[in-house]
Task: inverse folding
């Protein structure tokens, strides 16, 4: 929107964009301009023109989805920079990570930021799932052509991708944590029925952990899984628009309809609204739009910026304060004692430890039960959730809706169990995975033979 | 809030055609779809297949571990092969140090009040599996005993040769 001004005096046309011309869409001076901003600005076009006050309230979503998206962005940026320095070779990987830590300017910060953002992302994605579940946001409201269950399934795939990204990521430094994590991880894959052996061979690129394995995990980590996750992310966001925003809007609309307010007579209907099968009578999702909605520009934008900056600030702070540990170089001959997975996999480590079952002479490996069966059942249960949930549309988008009491209770119980196992794995396990209370001292390592 | 669905018009055009002609169209349509599917599907299959290695540059499963005099009575840990070799005067046996649960390296732990012949056991640092000195699992998640491997004496230089591709019975011993 470069202004074309005719300056009085010389009569020449000057065609220079002013700062205001470049930023008008970010700081609109009128309702009209803020709506226009969404349509004409490339970066804003995927936002709705108007957004309900409820869906940008922190108390509903805690912005967890947004935070995880911002963390993913941080991870992509720092990750790509780290790719300049990291060498995916068994001989050189560990040294190149050491170089990043000690020789490259701000390398320590970059790696720490990459690592801490990954840890935070796992936590935030998990919490986001908890939020979606407890608000019943995987359920459709009454809008036409909604498919919130599909978005829940996309979300589950994104959670898995996040975990896989973390797993493939911490293998790359080729330190002790990395080596033994691959050992354990691929042996769990081996415990899969029927295809286990072949699956492990495929993952390792051989029978043993070596160069083939490292390069495989590197390519998965740097290309395939991020690309897959990006695709899922775009689909996830698109679906949110198609589903009519966050689920709390469904609830808002439903309650308004219950009040039987009159539809505005002067409303114009969008092509999108018409093609999605709404009639003029049910058209306005929010009958009393002005009361409940605000313009996305600047209201959504401002909050996005704040959440983004806070996310970056917190990850940066953690990165500077915590740094990122690097264990000894990978040593196939010595397993660290205790060998612990990162915190988000400790519940699985605890699970594979305690689930070996002996029935007479017959033994079922915990690798199968704890590593494949239980996580598999949990995943199937998560996938089935929208089908199992028979509560009414009124329970969509409301925290702890009484209609969903049992679902929420079961879900919280499962999450609590996972957290308990994580805590046991983190604080109560010592050398040889023996059980210790936190106040008990670990015995001095018995000398290795 | 009923979903209004507009059904695509079902063709008057097709009905008008003769049975022979529509049969040919269906055949050509199917063949075309199959060709497109093959054009995209086969390269995908080839790409996945290419990730299964045909040639490996791994260490052989059968290797020499040293002469008889390298081994004293009792256990010796051969780190780079993850093996324990046991000597009892002139008998030898060999137990793999890879935990049967999830593949970590088990460690030999001396028992404080051990009787002779039973003064140590194997413990795994990852998930706490425990094995008796004879490799039999008795605690923790390990599903099977540690494997025994056959040992031979190399005819050329008299060194011990371990063959990790051949799993032996628990009572198996090499007497020299």
Result:
């Amino acid at each position: 929107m470069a202004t074309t001004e005719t300056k009085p005096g010389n009569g020449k046309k000057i065609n220079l964009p002013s700062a205001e011309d470049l930023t008008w869409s970010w700081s609109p001076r009128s309702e009209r301009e803020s709506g226009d901003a969404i349509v004409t600005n490339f970066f804003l076009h995927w936002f709705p023109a108007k957004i309900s006050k409820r869906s940008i309230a922190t108390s509903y979503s805690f912005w967890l989805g947004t935070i995880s998206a911002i963390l993913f962005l941080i991870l992509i940026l720092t990750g790509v920079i780290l790719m300049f320095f990291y060498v995916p070779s068994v001989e050189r990987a560990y040294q190149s990570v050491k170089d990043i830590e000690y020789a490259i300017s701000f390398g320590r910060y970059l790696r720490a930021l990459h690592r801490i953002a990954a840890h935070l992302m796992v936590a935030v994605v998990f919490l986001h799932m908890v939020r979606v579940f407890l608000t019943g946001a995987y359920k459709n409201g009454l809008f036409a052509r909604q498919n919130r269950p599909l978005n829940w399934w996309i979300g589950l795939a994104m959670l898995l991708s996040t975990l896989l990204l973390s797993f493939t990521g911490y293998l790359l430094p080729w330190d002790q944590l990395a080596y033994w994590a691959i050992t354990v991880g691929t042996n769990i894959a081996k415990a899969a029925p029927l295809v286990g052996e072949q699956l492990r061979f495929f993952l390792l690129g051989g029978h043993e952990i070596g160069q083939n394995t490292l390069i495989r995990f590197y390519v998965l980590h740097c290309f395939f899984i991020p690309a897959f996750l990006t695709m899922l992310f775009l689909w996830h966001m698109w679906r949110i628009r198609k589903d009519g925003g966050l689920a709390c809007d469904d609830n808002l609309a439903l309650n308004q309809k219950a009040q039987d307010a009159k539809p505005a007579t002067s409303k114009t209907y969008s092509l999108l609204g018409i093609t999605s099968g709404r009639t003029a009578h049910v058209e306005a999702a929010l009958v009393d739009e002005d009361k409940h909605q605000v313009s996305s520009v600047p209201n959504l934008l401002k909050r996005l910026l704040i959440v983004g900056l806070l996310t970056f600030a917190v990850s940066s702070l953690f990165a500077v304060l915590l740094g990122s540990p690097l264990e000894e170089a990978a040593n196939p001959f010595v397993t660290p004692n205790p060998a612990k997975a990162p915190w988000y996999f400790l519940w699985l480590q605890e699970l594979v430890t305690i689930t070996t079952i002996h029935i007479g002479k017959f033994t079922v490996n915990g690798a199968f039960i704890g590593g494949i069966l239980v996580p598999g059942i949990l995943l199937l249960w998560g996938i089935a959730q929208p089908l199992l949930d028979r509560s009414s549309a009124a329970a969509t988008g409301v925290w702890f809706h009484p209609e969903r009491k049992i679902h929420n209770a079961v879900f919280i119980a499962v999450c609590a169990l996972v957290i308990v196992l994580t805590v046991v794995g983190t604080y109560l396990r010592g050398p040889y995975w023996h059980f210790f209370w936190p106040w008990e001292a670990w015995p001095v390592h018995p000398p290795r033979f | 809030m009923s979903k209004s669905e507009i059904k695509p018009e079902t063709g008057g055009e097709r009905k008008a055609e003769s049975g022979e002609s529509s049969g040919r169209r269906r055949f050509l349509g199917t063949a075309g779809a199959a060709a497109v599917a093959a054009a995209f599907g086969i390269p995908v299959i080839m790409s996945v297949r290419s990730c299964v290695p045909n040639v490996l540059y791994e260490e052989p499963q059968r290797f020499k571990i040293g002469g008889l005099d390298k081994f004293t009575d009792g256990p010796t840990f051969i780190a780079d092969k993850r093996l324990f070799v046991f000597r009892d005067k002139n008998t030898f046996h060999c137990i793999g140090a890879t935990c049967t649960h999830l593949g970590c390296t088990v460690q030999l732990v001396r028992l404080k009040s051990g009787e002779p012949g039973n003064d140590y056991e194997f413990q795994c640092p990852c998930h706490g599996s425990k094995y008796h000195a004879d490799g039999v699992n008795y605690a923790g998640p390990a599903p099977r005993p540690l494997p025994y491997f056959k040992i031979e004496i190399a005819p050329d230089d008299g060194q011990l040769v371990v063959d990790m591709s051949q799993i032996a019975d628990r009572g198996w011993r090499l007497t020299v």
User: Anything to note?
Assistant: Chain B has a mean pLDDT of 83. The helical segments of chain B are 12-16, 19-50. The interface with chain A takes residues 1, 3-5, 51-53, 56, 58-59, 75, 77, 79-80, 82, 101-105, 107-110, 120, 123-128, 130, 140-144 of chain B (CB under 8 Å).
